[in-house]
Amino acid sequence: MRILVITMLAVGALAMPARADVSDLEEGFPTALTDAYPKEYLGREAQLVNRFIRTDKEEDGFFFEPRLEFGFPRNAQISVAVPFRAGELEPDGLGDVRVEALYNFNQETLGVPAVSLIAGLETPTGDDSEGVDPIVGAVFSKTLGRSSLLHRLHLVGRYQFNSEEQADERDGRYEAVVGYSRRVSPQLFILFDYLREQDLKEHEETNLVEAGLRYGLSPIWVLSAGVGFGIGAESPEVQATVGLQRELLIPYSSPE
Amino acid sequence: MTRTLGLLGSALCLLVGSACGGMHLEQRDRVTFMRGPHNYDFYSRHNDPFETSAAIHFAHAKAHDVLQLTPKGKAYYHDAAFNAESVAYTYNPPRLEPHMELYGPYTGRFLWQLYRAIDWTHVHHGETYDILSSRQIDWDRKKEWTDRQVRYYLELNDRARSPAPLDVTMRRANVMMKPYFGIFRSLYPQSTTYFYVAHWWHPAIYEAMMLGGNDEEQDEAVRETHEQTFSRVFHDRPSRMLLSREMMPRYSRLSPESANIFDNLHMIHGIAYAILAYEGWDEEQKRAEMYRVLDALGYQPGDEELARKFSLPYPDMDPRCYEGWMKGYEGEMNRIMEEMLREMWPGMSADGSSDPPPNVMHQLRLKLSPGYQPGEHPGSLHQALMKEYPQMKMDKEGMAPGKASEKMVRTMIKGWSEKYGNMPEVPPIAMTDEPSLRPAPCGPEERHHSAGRR
Questions:
Q1: Which of A109, A153, A185 to mutate to test the interface with B (most CBs of B within 10 A)?
Q2: Which Pfam families did the record assign (chain A) (predicted)?
Q3: pLDDT in tens, A157-184
């Protein structure tokens, strides 16, 4: 809880002008839902996910993940994420650093959704972690109807290969998210989703129903907050997330 | 690599099961803004005008879907409603700048390149306001940073608007005899004049900054100009689109490229709205025509050479004064339109006469005025002229979506070259000394007065 409070204070202290895109959904901000659209070419953004988790065993813990995201090359983004866990979550401390890229193939049309592919690597930087695990995935986003409220459906699928399978581990795990987003006001988006993911440990799955808000504080800051409730055994009882995204204004860039 | 990825994308589309065959797939290809010490200084220093800009861009975005999705028979109703909604947004603006898709998602799904062009040029608007607002950029370095932004704008996005004057790009576009020309202005007069106010406001803010310099006088000039938008301009709207050379002569001398880019964007708004409001074409045909016009008003190599080929009708104007010449029909935009019709006329008249008859010119003037005027024929300009002059010769192919009469384009470009090719270039403006704000040179009837302010 202390981390959440610190984050909220930081938001208040740092709020100032920005062009972070409140409509551009990113995994973790504040739910597992992402859309098929990448960051603008040459854009760069610092991100921070702060999450409180109460497990099905009623253990409380915190998860945070600073990330850097770059719009590069055109129609693509690359992100580097460094996760940490604290509290009663095991294992705690530094988790597996992840590098992930998303490439978008198309602007959606009236009939065809936007389609993106995901490729990434998870490196064994955490305790008890072995091997570099490749990640592949796809994202589909489709705007619905004629409304100006930007009603959108999203479908996300990821598969992570377990390159060095340990005892009682799967050889890979999947994650699937189906969700919906829409604009509420010029600065505010709301989103809902259902997440189902496998744990690397055999026979463990998570099912979550999530809801979240994304709010544009200024042209460079987006604040997001969300909550998720687990369904069934092995799923967290509840998790609450506060996310921060800040467009980086350095280094200066221009053709000479 | 890109081709391989494109093939992979097509394969994925087929997997989705949608009808990809025949669909026009394109990439988003959005680009971020140029980083510099000026970033977001307009937001920080002039927040009320920043929010007004956001409100105007809300209206631009939403207009696309309103016009595309509203049946012609309901235009009278939606014009009033949309104008009211846009004015309400301007008086109670959003805090952040929207991109076009945010309020016009339907049109974005079949005219994406239009949104790329508009959003990118709005970024250029924002950054050039930032540069002038920035106290960290000294007055004598404003041009250097503005030029740097112009280069960034032209080089990083292939949908950049042209830095050539509108006189040239409108002749390249050759839209006057298209079946949509005049439709938006006639059917949506209130919305049309809302955007005329917007296109008064945008250059007026630049010019206020040019009068005020970097110090507190800039705040004063911008505040007075901005307040006048609400106290006077919205209540007595311009009846034509004002060009940069009219409303921001000093900024046009500082950066003619940037000034022309804005004219070419503002013209794209008007043409896009007419195409969308026109019911005679389906979405594929509208896209073909819109993308043709985007190319014509877009950046083409060599356009920079023409950037200073315009004159300044009011070089000493003050944006704090809402003067009579800003409101009426007579002005640069309509001069260009009348010139183009005259240049085309020998190829359109039945007897090869060199000048259009007075009744033809009269219909043009009526069609260029917002709403239906007494004596104006309904429909497009072409329909109105055919009623006045039934024997008019028309190039049917040139009227088709996505096509242009190359002969007419050549004729008009030749006409421009003969009239203006050797004109003296508009002179640069000295930026060595920061200007000192003088009292506005206008009487109380032309000027907004804030209580307690000078």
A1: A109
A2: Phenol_MetA_deg
A3: 999 999 998 888 999 999 999 999 999 9
pLDDT at B395: 84
- Position A17 confidence tier, pLDDT thresholds 50, 70, 90: very low
**Nearest-CA distance from B269 to chain A in Å?**
19
Residue A210 near residue A242 (C-beta atoms within 8 A): no
Burial (0-12, 13-18, 19+ Cβ within 10 Å), A122: buried
Cβ(B61)–Cβ(B100) under 8 Å? Answer: yes
CA–CA distance from A207 to each of A156, A210, B33, B270 (Å)?
Answer: 15, 10, 39, 50
Burial of A72 per CB tally in 10 Å (0-12, 13-18, 19+):
middle
pLDDT band, very low/low/confident/very high, at A129 (cuts 50, 70, 90): confident
Domain boundaries, chain A: 2-247
Q: State which residue of chain B sits closest to A110, comparing Cα positions.
A: B109
CATH 2.40.160.40 fits A2-247, yes or no: yes
Q: With beta carbons under 8 A apart, name residues in chain A contacting B13.
A: 105-106, 112, 115
* Structural tokens at position B58: 């809300």
Question: What's the CA gap between B66 and A69, in Å, rounded?
Answer: 36
Mutate to test the interface with A, among B26, B27, B28 (most CBs of A within 10 A): B28
Where along chain B do its domains lie? 33-329
- pLDDT tens for B355-390 read 999 999 999 999 999 999 999 999 999 999 999 999
| pLDDT at residue B140, rounded to an integer | 97
Beta carbons of A254 and B35 less than 8 Å apart? yes
Radius of gyration for chain A, computed over Cα atoms and rounded to the nearest angstrom? 18
Contacts of A193 (CB under 8 A, 6+ apart): A31, A32, A33, A154, A177, A178, A179, A180, A209, A210
Find the residue in A nearest to B89 (Cα).
Answer: A186
Query: Do you know the residue count of chain B?
Result: 454
Residue entry with tokens 């991109």: B99
Instruction: Report which residue type is found at A254.
Output: S
| Cα distance from N-terminal residue to C-terminal residue, chain A | 48
**Between chains, do B108 and A250 touch, taking CB under 8 Å as contact?**
no
* Conformation bin of residue B182: beta by default, left when phi > 0, alpha when psi is -120 to 50: left
| pLDDT at residue B225, rounded to an integer | 97
